[in-house]
């Protein structure tokens, strides 16, 4: 008789189909869905981290000489691997970090999308030609590969964030060393194996991708610190908490390296009297409850105009009460587990602080099921933006506040230290345009009639203030992965100086 199928015996089959053979070790991997141990894998040592960085630097010196469109071909092959294994990798992401099935698959689709974006970008690394004030001179700017890019990613998007960085870094001529979250090492191993397979195909077809181009470090904090501290790592792209950013940023700056920080968000939406309440309900529900509130773009603050407060809030309460919490692999479940007990404890602490500050809590109860850290999403009516409302709690908590004056509420919207994403629901053109104007939202992402989460690859992703200021994907984010040189060419027979300076020597 066959033993019952568990996540622990499903995962090896998933990994095998994606070309991963686990090396056993002391580092456990768990699923937040059941709490069960999925595997125990080997960690990299500090010496191995140093060797990976050295190998990446050597690889960069070769890869920078490969024409950018050829580098794009490698990324195209990578996208093919991702398409072929989308179902398996999406399933593994859901198992390892607790995402519902569509979100696990959606994360892999993001990886495919950024590869497609980067392939096109490989022929568009443009510089300017600049008018010179000197006769018979031409000025231009050129962009060159930067070096080794270190990527430190978080559990909530265990593979997508790495791919955002890696796809751009590769077409820009860089090598990458990745330190994934300790809570998502299995997904990292699978994603890394797909890029390695693409590299092998690329080289078999006549490409010249050197060994060490795609490094992976499995382990704890010390490995991330190795990337942060190494002068051989030109750019550190780190995703995580503001606390983490306060440590990474100064350390990288002290050695005159570059950092790209994607940190916390305390995202808000304003719902005006003219908003479509049906549309708003759908937008708010996903933004606040999706991924169990564990997106950096999760909606955490909701300002409702007093004229629609009593009409909208009961509908929102009903949506919160009806949503199914449980095993995210099951059909119909919209809210899965928090990543671990610590996250659940932080949620309950924030709700206690909200009650102490005069808030009325709806939902938020701990759900005893399956062994994971589950809770119902919480809706908290607050009289003002105080206490826990000003801080990011990485959990499904939505603070709801009533407002009457738009301009005053816009000030409150911008009052928090984070500045990632924001939205307004309105059919008033003046309100919408004001929200998007220089005196409007101070966030890196500002939306109208759509929630703050669900960013697309085509737009630059990132925020201001304590969110870190970094930008990934979209627009000209590629420039973060390159260095710029300004060139002046004299094609005349004299040597005039700029600004009218003269320096005659004979």
Automatic annotation (TrEMBL):
Gene3D superfamilies: Aldehyde Dehydrogenase, Chain A, domain 1, Aldehyde Dehydrogenase, Chain A, domain 2. Pfam families: Aldedh. The active site is at 262. One of its GO terms (molecular function) is aldehyde dehydrogenase (NAD+) activity. Residues 26-484 form the Aldehyde dehydrogenase domain. Its EC number is 1.2.1.3. Keywords: NAD, Oxidoreductase. CDD domains: ALDH_F7_AASADH. SUPFAM superfamilies: ALDH-like. The keyword Kinase does not apply. PROSITE patterns: ALDEHYDE_DEHYDR_GLU (PS00687). It comes from the Bacteria. The keyword Oxidoreductase applies. Belongs to the aldehyde dehydrogenase family. PANTHER family: ALPHA-AMINOADIPIC SEMIALDEHYDE DEHYDROGENASE. Homotetramer. This is aldehyde dehydrogenase (NAD(+)). It comes from Tabrizicola oligotrophica. The lineage of its organism: Bacteria, Pseudomonadati, Pseudomonadota, Alphaproteobacteria, Rhodobacterales.
């Amino acid at each position: 008789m066959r033993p019952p199928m568990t996540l622990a015996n499903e995962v090896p089959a998933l990994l095998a189909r994606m070309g991963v053979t686990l090396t056993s070790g002391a580092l456990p991997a768990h699923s937040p869905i059941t709490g069960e141990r999925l595997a125990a894998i080997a960690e990299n040592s500090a010496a191995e981290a140093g060797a990976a960085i050295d190998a990446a630097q050597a690889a960069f010196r070769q890869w920078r000489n490969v024409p950018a469109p050829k580098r794009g071909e490698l990324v195209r092959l990578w996208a093919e691997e991702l398409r072929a294994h989308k179902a398996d990798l999406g399933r593994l992401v859901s198992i390892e970090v607790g995402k519902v099935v569509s979100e696990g698959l959606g994360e892999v689709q993001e990886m495919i999308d950024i590869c497609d974006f980067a392939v096109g970008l490989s022929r568009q690394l443009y510089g300017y030609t600049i008018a010179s004030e000197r006769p018979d001179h031409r000025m231009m700017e050129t962009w060159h590969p930067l070096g080794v890019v270190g990527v430190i990613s978080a559990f909530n998007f265990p593979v997508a964030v790495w791919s955002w960085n890696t796809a751009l870094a590769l077409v820009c001529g860089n090598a990458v060393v990745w330190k994934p979250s300790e809570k998502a090492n299995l997904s990292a191993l699978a994603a890394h194996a797909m890029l390695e397979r693409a590299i092998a195909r690329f080289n078999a077809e006549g490409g010249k991708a050197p060994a060490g181009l795609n490094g992976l470090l499995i382990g704890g904090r010390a490995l991330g610190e190795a990337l942060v501290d190494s002068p051989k790592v030109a750019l550190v792209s780190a995703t995580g908490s503001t606390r983490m950013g306060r440590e990474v940023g100064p350390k990288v700056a002290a050695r005159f390296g570059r950092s790209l920080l994607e940190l916390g968000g305390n995202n808000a939406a304003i719902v005006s009297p003219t908003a479509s309440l049906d549309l708003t309900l759908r937008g708010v529900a996903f933004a606040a409850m999706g991924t169990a509130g564990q997106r950096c773009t999760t909606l955490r603050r909701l300002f409702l105009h007093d004229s629609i407060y009593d009409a909208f809030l009961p509908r929102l309460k009903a949506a919160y009460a009806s949503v199914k919490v449980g095993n995210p692999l099951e059909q119909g479940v919209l809210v899965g587990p928090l990543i671990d007990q610590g996250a659940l404890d932080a949620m309950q602490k924030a709700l206690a602080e909200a009650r102490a500050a005069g808030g009325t809590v709806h939902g938020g109860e701990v759900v005893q099921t399956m062994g994971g850290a589950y809770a119902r999403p919480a809706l908290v009516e607050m009289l003002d933006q105080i206490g826990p409302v000003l801080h990011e709690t990485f959990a499904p908590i939505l603070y709801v506040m009533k407002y009457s004056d738009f301009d005053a509420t816009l000030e409150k919207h911008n009052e928090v230290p984070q500045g990632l994403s924001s939205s307004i629901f309105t059919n008033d053109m003046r309100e919408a345009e004001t929200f998007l104007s220089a005196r409007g939202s101070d966030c890196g992402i500002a939306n109208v009639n759509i929630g703050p989460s669900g960013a697309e690859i085509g737009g630059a992703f990132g925020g201001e203030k304590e969110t870190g200021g970094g930008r990934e994907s979209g627009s000209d984010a590629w420039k973060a992965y390159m260095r710029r040189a300004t060139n002046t060419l004299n094609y005349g027979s004299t040597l005039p100086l700029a600004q009218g300076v003269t320096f005659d020597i004979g």
